């Protein structure tokens, strides 16, 4: 990577860290799809990080993973608060900071759980505290630095879903997640990585239509098929992302 490109990408990440993405369009790679679409496998392939595959640990907030080349290897985790928080609430979220030597699956799950608590996210079923919520606009930022990394950044968003789960999600949560995804992919400077499982009818995947609405010409949308091993025998020729 050229030095000038690296400097440009670092400046973009600094602007994103200031949450200026809420006021101006910043270039970003956004990974989107329905729940259980295989996003975790795609993200692990992109970043090398052990994103959890357990459905109970599905993404509840935007997660930005940033790689930077540096002489010192380190991992820093923080939360970028949403603008809807009051100054007092933002101070509480801002206090979340972790510096790690490694990020294996156990530490990853533990970090996600701790971040969720700081964001005020309900982690257990059946909890009726109206102060707690199921999803958040706050961004969990995971920054990895080291001599072996090239500068790279990707944002993972919560998966779309169409039916609430009693004690866990509501109809308002469905609307909340859909609005969040729409806001990110309608940024004309974002690249949309739309993840679709190959073993279902693509027409039933809501992200396909949302991506078409946000990017009618398909100039900044990349479709990724997952779970090819689950396609019914003899139905392989019916699998296609040509409409995206």
Give the secondary structure arrangement, pairings included:
Elements lengths: L2 H15 L10 E6 L5 H9 L15 E7 L4 E7 L6 H8 L2 E4 L4 H15 L19 E8 L5 E5 L14 H15 L4 E8 L8 H9 L6 E6 L18
Parallel strand pairs: 1-6, 1-7, 2-5, 7-8
Antiparallel strand pairs: 2-6, 3-4, 3-5
Report on this model:
It is a single chain. The protein is of the alpha/beta class and 244 residues long. It is 29% helix and 21% strand. It has 6 helices and 8 strands, in the order αβαββαβαββαβαβ. An 8-stranded mixed sheet has the order 4-3-5-2-6-1-7-8, with helices on both faces. The longest helix has 15 residues, at 3-17.
Lateral arrangement of strands in the main beta sheet: 4-3-5-2-6-1-7-8
What is the total tally of β strands?
Answer: 8
Per DSSP, the total helix count is: 6
**What proportion of the residues form beta strands (DSSP E)?**
15-25%
Estimate percent helicity.
Answer: 25-40%
Q: Please give the radius of gyration in angstroms.
A: 18 Å
Instruction: Give the class from helix and strand content and strand pairing.
Output: alpha/beta
What's the story with the biggest beta sheet? 8 strands, mixed
**Integer average pLDDT:** 84
Flag low-confidence runs.
none
Q: Which series of helices and strands comes N to C?
A: HEHEEHEHEEHEHE
What is the distance, rounded to the nearest whole angstrom, between the alpha carbons of the first and last residues?
A: 30 Å
Bulk shape: globular
């Amino acid at each position: 990577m050229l030095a000038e490109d690296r400097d440009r990408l670092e400046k973009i990440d600094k602007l994103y860290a200031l949450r200026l993405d809420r006021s101006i369009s910043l270039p970003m790679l956004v990974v989107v799809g329905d729940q259980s679409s295989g996003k975790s496998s795609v993200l692990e392939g992109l970043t090398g990080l052990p994103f959890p595959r357990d459905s109970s640990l599905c993404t509840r907030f935007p997660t930005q993973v940033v790689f930077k080349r540096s002489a010192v290897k380190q991992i820093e985790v923080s939360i970028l608060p949403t603008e809807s928080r009051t100054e007092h609430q933002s101070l509480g979220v801002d206090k979340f900071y972790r510096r790690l030597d490694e990020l294996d699956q156990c530490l990853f799950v533990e970090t996600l759980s701790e971040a969720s608590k700081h964001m005020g996210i309900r982690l257990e079923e059946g909890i009726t505290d109206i102060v707690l919520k199921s999803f958040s606009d706050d961004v969990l930022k995971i920054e990895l630095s080291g001599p072996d990394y090239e500068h790279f950044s990707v944002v993972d968003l919560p998966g779309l879903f169409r039916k609430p789960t009693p004690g866990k999600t509501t109809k308002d949560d469905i609307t909340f997640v859909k609005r969040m995804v729409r806001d990110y992919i309608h940024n004309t400077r974002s690249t949309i990585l739309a993840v679709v499982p190959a073993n279902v009818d693509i027409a039933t995947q809501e992200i396909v239509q949302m991506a078409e609405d946000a990017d009618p010409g398909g100039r900044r949308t990349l479709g990724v098929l997952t779970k090819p091993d689950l396609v019914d025998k003899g139905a392989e020729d019916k699998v296609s992302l040509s409409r995206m």
